[in-house]
Amino acid sequence: MMADKESPKKPIVNNSNNSKKKKKKKRGGAKRKMTFEQTVAYKSVREWVFLDRSNDNCNNSTSLFDSVLDDFGVQWSKYLLLTDHDTMSGIPEALEAARRFGIKIIPGVEISTMFSTRGELGPKEPVHILAYYSSCGPKKSEAFEKFLGDIRDGRFIRAKNMISKLNKLKLPLKWENVIKIAGKGVAPGRLHLARAMLEAGHVDNLKQAFTQYLYDGGPAYSMGSEPVSEEAVELIRETGGIAVLAHPWALKNPATIIRRLKEAGLHGLEAYRSDGKLEVYSAFADAQNLLKLGGSDYHGRSGQHESEVGSVSLPVMMVHEFLKVARPIWCNAIKEILETYVKDPSDSNLQLITRFGQTKVSKGISPFTCVSEFIKQCLSTWLSKEERESAEFEAIKLELSRVSVSLREFEARAASK
């Protein structure tokens, strides 16, 4: 009888387990294996992400960028594309902070431009172009920095014009307050004006400042001295960068703009946001054979309409395709920068190599005794083993070994300036 009582229990238990298993399968199913192409892409991207991990000698100091990364909990991110408006001045600090979090930073800049649908006399629309560079930064950097500097100068004039319009709207702001909010040497933008309006009590939040006064064509809006969009794309290519159209969903006539910028040399466009892939812009990219990227477009405005840093999940295949296009361009730019230094081993040319990463000095003693040794170390963080061992870079390293400038001498001269 005991056996009879126990026998029906077994199938009941087994049925219960089977039903649970079925539920699990229904809920998630078996994990799909990566395809061969996805495996290759993953390995390639992973190799690039961890290029400089073994050479991390950073100290434990903190920075403003540390707090941004920490506040938004993006330690799990593997790479971030950093693009401030019309300046790359924050890149060195970001690179140092990112290493401490084990994150790969792609240096970049978001360039403010103006697009005209029918030539110079036609209606104009603001268009933002993203430029992505290697860890060494752009070649022809003086020309590129002048280009950005002219835009920033125009932002000062634009901000003053917008303050004047706000004053006429009985929403007075003081120039000194706007400059203080922007920070020393920073060209003020609409976000800084919005914060000044909030502090003055003219609006309840930053969103209201934009939706009622500062939006494109709004009552307090003013145009700056932005360059033509096609000109920006061409310069990005000339300086060894990857040109990408930012947030095309914000444009009034995206199809025309994408087509025209593609003709100028555009490499890609943003098709991914925090809420996923936008099929219409993915289709635009496919039609024009453009790369598909994405970004959170975080500006520090706060509020529920602001996407968090690192909130965009870009598929590894998209990153792989991006790097397949970008890395040869970046390699060539690095090669030209190094060749310039070999021909003229001046302080200014060496600073072009070191501007995005300071040499590590401990108690006044550099771990590198000469410039060539330091540059070889840089190459190990910028390039893969295969890229470094190419005939072109081997020839450059040979030439660098003949440059007898002491790194300590360079550091001493730089410190005295």
UniProtKB/TrEMBL annotation:
InterPro entries: PHP_domain (IPR052018), Pol/histidinol_Pase-like (IPR016195). Residues 19-32 have a biased composition (Basic residues). Residues 1-32 are annotated as: Disordered. This is Polymerase/histidinol phosphatase-like. It comes from Abeliophyllum distichum. The lineage of its organism: Eukaryota, Viridiplantae, Streptophyta, Embryophyta, Tracheophyta.
